[in-house]
Design a protein that fits this description.
The structure holds 2 protein chains of 2 kinds.
Chain A lengths: L4 E3 L2 E4 L5 E6 L6 E8 L3 E9 L2 E5 L6 E5 L5 E5 L8 E8 L8 E2 L3 E5 L1
Parallel strand pairs in A: 2-11
Antiparallel strand pairs in A: 1-3, 3-8, 4-5, 4-9, 5-6, 7-8, 9-10, 9-11
Chain B lengths: L3 E3 L3 E5 L4 E3 L1 E3 L5 E8 L5 E7 L5 E3 L5 E5 L4 E6 L8 E9 L7 E2 L3 E6 L1
Parallel strand pairs in B: 2-12
Antiparallel strand pairs in B: 1-4, 3-9, 5-6, 5-10, 7-8, 8-9, 10-11, 10-12
Chain lengths: 113, 114
């Protein structure tokens, strides 16, 4: 168990819908990273939050957004879903500061039908 | 943009065979290097990491990796694989000028035949 919790584990939804994925980092970690894992794109960085503030954006679509709350949990919002958004979405947490390893959650498998 | 290349997409080995998985990264300054493993249906778990110091790094489950700066490489090795090593392996890099954001390679699926 990495200590990072993601809910839900599986999500099936229709095109055009909106979903929210949730991530609770390890208790001592201030940073949350979101990654998307798909068959064609591999594992790609989406967005990074540190202590409630957005720090970096990667290949994140405008239809996607995220936030980190005062209790440090984070949510990734995906809207106007398309078939191609079907993927495994991971969050990872780190303490922040200098170089350190990331701890990954179990992921949320999103299927858009 | 920074990139990470893993040369082998699929590897099939018999138990007790030796393993070497290649990983090369693009230059982007000071790097931190990782190998993660993903067992079927599970999350990414850290096998080993390199930040600085001895370029030969030992990780969990008998894995090791060698950082060769001149070749921009961080190859993963294991002298004798077991059936339980069947998994997907990801090389990842973070650059000191980009926080702990990870750039991943495409992954290598390893199948170990009993």
């Amino acid at each position: 168990d990495s200590g990072v919790t993601q809910t839900p584990k599986h999500l099936i939804t229709a095109t055009g819908q909106r979903v929210t994925l949730r991530c609770s980092p390890r208790s001592e970690d201030l940073s949350v990273y979101w990654y998307q894992q798909s068959l064609d794109q591999g594992l790609q960085f989406l967005i990074h939050y540190y202590n409630g503030e957005e720090r970096a954006k990667g290949n994140i679509l405008e239809r996607f957004s995220a936030q980190q709350f005062p209790d440090l949990h984070s949510e990734l919002n995906l809207s106007s879903l398309e078939l191609g958004d079907s993927a495994l979405y991971f969050c990872a947490s780190t303490r922040g500061g200098g170089p350190t390893e990331a701890f990954f959650g179990q992921g949320t498998r999103l299927t858009v039908v | 943009a920074q990139s990470v290349s893993q040369h082998n997409h699929h590897v099939i080995l018999s138990e007790a065979a030796s393993l070497e998985l290649g990983c090369n990264y693009s230059y982007g300054g000071t790097v931190n290097l990782f190998w993660y493993v993903q067992y079927p249906g599970q999350h990414l778990q850290l096998l080993l990491k390199y930040f600085s110091g001895d370029p030969l790094v030992k990780g969990i489950k008998g894995f090791e990796a060698e950082f060769i700066k001149s070749k921009f490489s961080f190859n993963l090795r294991k002298p004798s694989v077991q059936w339980s090593d069947t998994a997907e392996y990801f090389c990842a890099v973070s650059y000191n000028n980009a926080g702990n954001m990870l750039t991943f390679g495409g992954g290598t699926r390893l199948m170990v035949k009993p």
